[in-house]
Specification:
The chain is an alpha+beta fold. It folds into two domains: 237 residues, Phosphatase 2c, domain 1 (4-Layer Sandwich), CATH 3.60.40.10; 126 residues, Histidine kinase-like ATPase, C-terminal domain (Heat Shock Protein 90, 2-Layer Sandwich), CATH 3.30.565. It has a five-stranded antiparallel sheet. The protein has a five-stranded antiparallel sheet with strand order 2-3-4-5-8, with helices on one face. β12 and β13 form a beta hairpin. The longest helix is centred in the first third of the chain and has 24 residues. It is globular and about 85 Å long. It starts with a helix and ends in a 13-residue tail after the last strand. It comes from Streptomyces drozdowiczii. Keywords: Hydrolase. InterPro entries: Bact_Sigma-Reg (IPR052016), HATPase_C_sf (IPR036890), HATPase_dom (IPR003594), PPM-type-like_dom_sf (IPR036457), PPM-type_phosphatase-like_dom (IPR001932).
């Protein structure tokens, strides 16, 4: 019995040393490049190990670019930690070879299958260009990122995705979405344990995270990370490194902020950029949700509904009447109460739309008519490739009745 106790103690000690070594390697992420700052946090489960299946990484790429990665291997035991270390190394190697986000995830999926056919992993991989703020994102079954704007507005950033790594060998298809991160904006990547810790589901956990993520300036990225962790972890003694997730799931958090490269006058502005593909019908619902989040504090809810309706019409016209993808850019500028919303929808189709007079029973043809009635301004302009349809709404003070004022 004494021999068995000693053997178990040696095994536990070895597992603890292994997990500590893996935990230390998590802090060897590459330094942030000029124009981008990174803050990370990692909290293990309460099972005694210092690391589990979750991981994050930041990688310096050729041509001044940078990759950030967050992932979650199924399980919380030593085997999950070992798979995590191997998968993290593989992703790092594929990225350093110069592969794009889709190729990195496809190769990592096949690699995981060779290691263990019974376990899968979720992952989100971003290739970032610090000079422009462009983020090329590929997602493998991982939770969507969260975008925080300079004024504290937070929204789920819906990103196209494929199956988790290693789940269905031979079915690796990971589309790439492009998001532009503007100065002062922060993108939050996390594992599901961060959202669901404390018995929350994905919705209530998201509300809790949003309330902790929104307040305060964006300058103190480490302070924001600490505030987020304090919101989701049970209070108790101990330093940040000694914190433990209480619900049996590890927590990994990565914040990516676009910094000002050149000093410039601060402009009160919010932006939203997204693309809806021909084969992504659900993208319309996601676009509506993100536009509503952009206008969460707009003075009049009926104007928000108008903006969502008109944006849906413009995107729908692209998907129905062309064989092109639709790109939506939305900008809110000005001070609260007198702001202006500009929505632009671009496609590469050559044919310009024209206003029609549909009959009472017609099922289409009212898109431009709605623009003419509801928008303060609207238009269609040709581009070197394709065209852009746009509309503008001016924020109006709440009123008991009457028409929406127009310029």
């Amino acid at each position: 019995m004494i021999a068995q106790v000693l053997e178990r103690a040696r095994a536990s000690r070895a597992e603890l040393e292994l997990s500590r070594g893996l935990r230390r390697s998590m802090h060897t992420a590459g330094a942030a490049l000029t124009g981008l700052s990174v803050a990370t946090r990692y909290v293990p489960t309460g099972g005694g190990l210092m690391v589990g299946g979750d991981w994050y990484d930041s990688i310096d790429l050729p041509n001044g670019r940078m990759a950030v990665v967050i992932g979650d291997v199924q399980g919380h035991d030593v085997h999950a930690a070992g798979l995590m270390a191997q998968l993290r190394t593989a992703v790092h190697a594929y990225a350093a070879e110069g592969h794009g986000p889709d190729a990195v995830l496809a190769r990592a999926s096949r690699f995981l299958t060779t290691l263990d056919e019974d376990r899968f992993a979720t992952c989100l991989y971003i290739e970032a260009d610090p000079s422009t703020g462009d983020l090329h994102i590929a997602r493998a079954g991982h939770p969507h990122p969260v975008l925080r704007m300079p004024d504290g507005t937070c929204m789920l950033k819906h990103v196209s995705g494929g199956l988790p790594l290693g789940l269905m060998p031979g079915e690796e298809d990971y589309p790439i979405d492009t998001v532009r991160l503007h100065e002062g904006e922060i993108l939050m990547l996390c594992t599901d344990g961060f959202i669901e810790n404390g018995g929350h589901d994905m919705y209530t956990g998201w509300v809790r995270v949003r309330d902790a993520f929104s307040p305060g300036p964006a300058d103190d990225l480490e302070g924001i990370a600490d505030r987020l962790m304090a919101a989701v972890l049970d209070p108790g003694p101990g330093s940040r490194e000694e914190a433990v997730a209480r619900d049996g799931d590890d927590i990994a958090l990565l914040l990516l902020r676009r910094d000002a490269i050149h000093a410039r006058a601060e402009v009160s502005q919010r932006r939203l950029m997204l693309t809806v593909g021909q084969d992504q019908g659900e993208g319309l619902a996601e676009a509506r949700a993100e536009l509503k989040a952009l206008l969460h504090d707009w003075a009049r809810p009926d104007q928000v509904d108008t903006a969502v309706l008109l944006a849906t019409e413009l995107l729908g016209n692209v998907l129905v009447h062309t064989d092109q993808d639709g790109a939506l850019n939305a900008t809110v500028s000005g001070e609260t109460g007198t702001r202006r919303l500009l929505v632009e929808v671009m496609d590469r189709g050559d044919e310009l739309p024209h206003q029609r007079t549909p009959g009472e029973l017609a099922s289409s043809g009212r898109g431009l008519l709605l623009l003419d009635i509801l928008a303060d301004q609207w238009g269609v302009r040709p581009e070197p490739e394709g065209k852009t349809a746009w509309f503008a709404l001016n924020e109006a003070a709440p009123a008991d009745g009457g028409d929406i004022p127009s310029i």
